[in-house]
Amino acid sequence: MRTEITIAAVFFATILTAMGCACKLDGTRPNGAAGWRKGEPVAAALTDEEAAAIYEQVTRSTNVRAWSGNPILPGWYADPEAVRFGDRYWIYPTYSAPYARQTHLDAFSSPDLIHWTWHPRIISTKQVTWAKRAMWAPAAIEKHGRYYLFFSANDIQNSNELGGIGVAVSDTPDGPFEDLIGKPLVGEFHNGAQPIDQFVFKDDDGTHYLVYGGWRHCNIARLADDFRSLIPFADGTTFKEITPEGYVEGPMMFRRNGKLYFMWSEGGWTGPDYSVAYAIADGGGSPLGPFNRVGKVLIQDPSIATGAGHHSVLRLPGPAAGGEGSDQWAIVYHRRPAGTKERDHREVCIEPMTFDTHGHIKPITITTTGIHPHPAAPVSTTAQPRQ
After folding, report:
1. Strand order in the sheet with 136-143
2. Which region among 51-60, 127-136, 221-230 has the lowest average model confidence (pLDDT)?
3. I need a labelling partner for 215 at 20 to 30 A (CA). Which of 24, 34, 53, 124 fits?
4. At a CB cut-off of 8 Å and minimum separation 6, what does 225 contact?
5. Does 338 have pLDDT greater than 50?
6. Is pLDDT at 45 greater than 70 in this prediction?
């Protein structure tokens, strides 16, 4: 008998197994959870009530945390890029400090969105000789077993200054990363877009796009297969402007159920009104647009935090083979704690992100609780009959 099981239930029941705790649940049915014995692997279908009972047992009798809490990372960080590589989640943030001190990037990894490991200085200006300051907003992607980190540096104000968007590579997601081409990949202004806040979007056909831009302009360009250069589009242009209504900076894209979502930040990043908005692509959902603005989905709550923005999105792995069976999503973003107006006092947080029946993103509530644990490694849901 093959049945579905919630990720949270499997996760906590597995923890209980590992800790030698018996899980006493009422009710019986073929291959059900009732009668599960100490030391047995969990291979059963649980109802929501049973999952809740497991949560209760775990949180009452162990030190396992049922929520991530917010912020999820220690210290001042911003512009988080959240990805999943294999059996771990990774967050690559900006080190939130004065520009002159932003000379390196750190990373954090977790098996479950709860317990995080710090990986300091995965890259710095020592590896990127053209970068002097303002290393910002990394974007990470894996390709052919290597890990690529796109970043911006130097906060250039015109095309005559040295800086812009660079790319680095490593054999492991925790670095160290080395400069891939020894110069900026995008080192000039095009269509009015400052070369910052890059995001790499891999479309369903395998094409990789660089989506980026500050100063209220957003460009898209096609990346070469080796990520060392950009490939012109069919009409000969390399940079196409796709700026949606209200756009300021911090773009990212993802697909869900046949729709292409384009998200970004708007408002001033130093102020309380920094926020996240989104659009959905017309027609077949081309990354080149056009995009129809829907509205804001993440805004401040002055009682908790202000300046909520510059985010990334995680699709959480499901129980199916390969871990792609889930329609559970999370948004990872930065915000400024209530009571502080210090520009660089930004912290990384996480919330669930859900959709309505029309595919629109529901308004996201900022919280101090965050999200439930969710293992990065996919789990099997095949029920095994007791011998």
Report:
1. 136-143, 146-153, 164-170, 178-179
2. 51-60
3. 124
4. none
5. yes
6. no
Q: Which residues pair with 220 in a beta bridge?
A: 211, 240
Q: What is the pLDDT of residue 64?
A: 58
Q: Is the dihedral of CA 315, 318, 324, 325 positive or negative?
A: negative
Residue 72 is assigned to a structural domain of this protein: no
Residues sharing a CB contact under 8 Å with residue 321, sequence separation 6 or more, in sequence order: 378
Among all residues, which ones are annotated catalytic?
A: 79, 249
Q: Are both 48 and 90 inside the same structural domain?
A: no
Axis crossing angle, helix 48-61 with helix 7-19, rounded to the nearest 10:
40
pLDDT one-digit tens code per residue, 87-104:
999 999 999 999 999 999
Task: Say if residue 60 is in the same domain as residue 126.
Answer: no
CA atoms of 332 and 79, how far apart (whole Å): 9
pLDDT band, residue 385 (cuts 50/70/90): very low
Measured CA to CA, the distance from residue 90 to residue 93 in angstroms comes to: 10
Please tell me whether residues 61 and 203 are part of one structural domain: no
Q: Is the peptide bond before 41 cis (omega within 30 degrees of 0)?
A: no
Rounded Cα distance between 150 and 185, Å, is 9
